[in-house]
Amino acid sequence: MENYAAYMAYTDAEVGRLIESLLGIQLGLESTLKRIDEIGGPKSEPHVPAGWAQAMCTPFQWSKAGG
Q1: How many Å apart are CA 30 and CA 36, to the nearest integer?
Q2: Are residues 51 and 61 in contact, defined by beta-carbon separation less than 8 angstroms?
């Protein structure tokens, strides 16, 4: 899990740098708070790949992916 968390933190930072360099977007706290209730709703697109779903359910037999 630590490797996954570190990878996600690194990816988040690098994608942020890419977007900032391309578009100069700075959403800010106010903009984020206006949309906070959308997280997990039909307008958001949460996704966990099957491999990570199984890894996060270890040592249990079944996972969020059903396999």
Answers
A1: 10
A2: no
CA distances to 1, 5, 19, 36, 44 from 57, rounded to whole Å, are: 11, 15, 33, 27, 23
Ordered by start, the domain boundaries in the chain are 2-56
Q: pLDDT tens for residues 16-59? A: 888 878 876 667 888 878 888 887 777 776 666 677 777 777 77
Closest CA to 54 of 45, 63, 46: 63
**What is this structure's pTM?**
0.36
